[in-house]
Amino acid sequence: MELSENPFIVAFKVPANETEEERVHRARAFQDAQRVSRQIDENLQETKRNLDRRKRAIRILLLGQAESGKSAVLKNFQLAFTPHQFQKERDLWKTIIQLNLISSVRTLLNILNDVDSNVQSLLTPPRTPGSHPNSSYSNKLRRIHLGLSPLLSLENDLNRMFFATGGPSHEICVPAGSRWKSKLGFRDSASVHQDLKLTNAQNAIKSNLIQLLEASKDDIDSLWRDADVQRALGEREVDLRDTPGFFLDDVERIASASYCPTDSDIVRARVRTDGVEEHHLVAESIRLKGNEFFITDVSGARSSRHSWIPFFDDSHAILFLAPLVFNQMLEEDPRVNRLEDSLLLWKEICSNVLLANCNIIIFFNKMDILRRILESGVEVRKFVPSYGNAPNEVESVTKYFKDRFKTYHKKLSPKPRSFISHETSAIDIHSTTALVVTVHDGIIRDNLEKSDMI
User: Fold this and answer.
1) Cα 432 to Cα 269: distance, rounded to the nearest angstrom
2) Following DSSP, what letter does each residue of 224-275 receive, concatenated?
3) Distance separating alpha carbons of residues 207 and 42, to the nearest angstrom
4) Is the pLDDT confidence value at 196 over 70?
5) Whole-number Å distance between alpha carbons of 437 and 291
6) pLDDT per residue over 285-341, tens digit each?
7) Is residue 273 a known part of a binding site?
8) Residue 210 near residue 98, CB atoms below 8 Å
9) 453 annotated to bind ligand
10) Which parts of the sequence bind GTP (predicted)?
11) 91 and 265 in contact (C-beta within 8 Å)?
């Protein structure tokens, strides 16, 4: 191409009989074009740097069904490798934990008011005075219910303001990538701009929540510890302690105006993420300072599992969460046993050819709940007939399910690989934090071996 035919040259070529005004306009257009060109070059360089940095970083994919404990494991990674960042976020978790507490109260009241429950009359006024055998007691529960109404109403308002949720479940649910933490006052490099008026409104409703919760803590504690309420839960075979975000045993502490969340509180807190969210961690410790890793947390809902596949070929390791809770059904499909669903999911992961060269590490999670279930006398064979008459003890039950997962791993993997498993209770921050450090070191060592560097 002739130089005179180059469109980039022609556009800024000095025309004949150019006026001064035209010259100034042409010069400005040329400067603007140069600025845009430099910006494009800088963006391309930044994109290349990010891609290079990502290639050097450890990439981990968290997999498992909904409520398997993925978020708790993620928080343990943050606590282990980025403790200062974890500390900065402490205050925002105060609101989340208080909302978790109120959500448990609402769940409890809904159970007591269920028309199918034998204790429905505990919250429903008798048709005639004194017609209920525990009329004075029922009046007490109805008074508590009425007294908690403003708190429940405020929970609705706060959920709508911060999270745009307020459905029947009242569960805190945030879309992936929504930067929901900034709405609760947390500032990072990507959320420096915030509407001051909205922030003031948020601060006001958070302050109201603290005051109202403190005023209601005696009623909440009385409701939760009441013997008849506990009997009602037992009749319906409901154990709220097994639910994510449970804090009813800590009402006195959490409902206090001076409450500050502990590390354990934050790990136990429940926020459901809808979609795929990637977390970028830069290690702060002296030994690993500057080391980066990307942890991808995907939605475990059955309807969202098709979205996992694009992340398979970009991961150094998969952490698969399999809660050993054999007597629970999926919330999204009450016909499906949770543990059987985990096994089906595990088989799909093990057999996927995209993951043939990927480390798969399985966490047999919620061991604390398994122990409590067995100690309460629940028999495994009633839910898993193939377990037969084996001992109804933690060690035996764990070995049985571990052997099943191990068998599928060996049988279905496209090529031989080690079966790596750990027994965990993700809300136990001391043991799990130590474990994630071990897992991290193992991933590093395996990658070096594959690169023939050791």
Assistant:
1) 16
2) HH-HHHHHHHHHTT--GGGSTT--GGGHHHHTSTT----HHHHHH---EEES
3) 44
4) no
5) 13
6) 767 777 888 888 887 777 777 777 777 777 788 899 999 999 988 888 888 899 999
7) yes
8) yes
9) no
10) 365-368, 426
11) no
Burial class (CB in 10 A: 0-12, 13-18, 19+), 68: buried
Residue closest to 101 by CA, chosen among 183, 180, 219? 219
- Where are the strands (E) in 350-415, listed by range? 359-365
List of domains in the chain: 58-82+283-448 (3.40.50.300), 90-267 (no CATH)
Check the annotation: does 368 bind a ligand: yes
Backbone φ, ψ for residue 217 (5° rounding): -65, -35
Place of tokens 């002739």: 2
DSSP state of 57: S
Structure tokens at 179: 């930067």
Distance of CA 8 to the CA centre of its chain: 51
Query: Binding residue per annotation — 426?
Result: yes
Please answer whether residues 393 and 374 qualify as being in contact, where contact means their C-beta atoms are separated by less than 8 angstroms.
Answer: yes
DSSP code, position 173: E
The gap between the terminal CA atoms of the chain, to the nearest Å, is 53
